[in-house]
Amino acid sequence: MTDETLPDPDSEPYWQGAAAGELRYQRCGACKTAIFYPRALCTNCGAPDPDWSVSDGQGTVYAVSVVHRPPPSFSGQAPYAVVLVDLDEGFRMMSRIVDAAPDTVAVGDRVRVIFRDDPDGRPTPYFTPA
Amino acid sequence: MIEGNIVSLKRACAIAGVAESRLGVVPDSTVLTLQAEALVAALADAGLEKSDVDGLLVSGAWGRLPGLQIAEYLGIQPSYADSTMVGGASFEFHLGHAAAAIQAGLCRVAVILYGSTQRSRADKYIFQIRNDLGYQYEAPYGLPTPVGSYALAASRHFAQYGTTSEQLADLAVSTRNWAALNPKALRREPLTRDDVLNSGPIATPLNKLDCCLFTDGGGAVVVVSPDIAKTLKKPPVWLLGQGESVSHAQISEMPDLTVTPAAKSGARAFEMAGVTHRDLDVVEIYDSFTITVLLTLESLGFCAPGTGGEFIANGRTGPGGEFPLNTNGGGLSYCHPGQYGIFLIIEAVRQLRGECDERQVANAALALISGTGGVLSSNSTCILGVE
Ligand SMILES: [Zn+2]
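That is the input. Now the predicted structure with zinc ion docked in place:
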């Protein structure tokens, strides 16, 4: 799914971070809310230009689904576990579990970030059991 | 927050006509022909002419500018137009918007329209996988949309409250039992709990028969001012309350996967109508997936958080059960042409008019409909009554 529109002005620091092995997120300078995905303003108080930070990459599985019928561009990869992870810094993101059997992952499990290339060859954050 | 009183839409408008187009698999049609069919039938149901229509509310992800294309095709030049597109709930939003416009005197006869040929023409109207803007943070992980998003919500509810696949399956069975009583339903053959559980995983914990149908179809709803309503041949169905809420676009941005925007929109609808849950005779809730219904029931306050599984289990929502729900067979067994919400209105109106034959809920006088769009992203809830 190579897309020539990426990265965009909001996401460029994020994807640059991924290429450098860093999970970057934003934090509002005014109200200190952690913000993900990256934006031009704080989703809580509306202050412009949130600051960039680097996450420790440690989090807890908030929700998990093992995909058995994937979208066409992911055919042949199933089953795999897609997760929502609550990072310890206070933001949530979607990812996928790697280096573990998909049906062993449960809500509440501790996980940590690990960077792999996505199907387009772009360094991307995945998660693995901590 | 700037607080202020909300203007009530109670009795601001009435529904005077409803109709489906052909449903199911309709290869000899387009989105335009299906909407024309539904419009003609709904106007006949209302006893009004096309020339009476001065408001048009449409949604759809087909074409370049659906709101213009359908008006042109039908030969309607509305003086009030609304193309609000918030997924399958759009039509409940439209009903509130039509009420507000009629109350303000901006139009008198508004038509809400929908049509889709997603099944027969292989157009992927909605939910295309995208990899730009906000979607670039979900797209790399291969979540099938929308089912995977609803599966994540189900997984959270299961883990947080002990909800089970058996409970979700029971809802699918009850809904199928309603479909068996509806000649227009696509799937009417008997279904068991085990059939649902063994239908194959799509994205855990959701199985194939936890998911709605994939059909063609269209519908139309004619909404009129109170003065016009009183002149028509059929008894009017009044809008008594309406609320709407938008929460997020992507599932990773949903604040709490067990609470949908129905919590906000439902509270407003109940307050506006001045009724309680116990007053309702029939309830129609968007069932894109079984879990959608469970979460919506809890968010609307029909049962406490975490108890939705018990609420829907063991045939309670089916024919003869104590909580008549999705009496046409729902998106799960009747039809689901991409955006299902218009069919919630159509069924509620027919129940309130006593036009439902075998599946008629006795003495139905007060109905609640709740549409959910996107991935638990948007909700509008409406309360309708004959009094
Ligand atoms: Zn802020």
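The beta strands of chain A are 23-27, 34-35, 51-55, 58-67, 80-87, 92-96, 110-117, 123-129.
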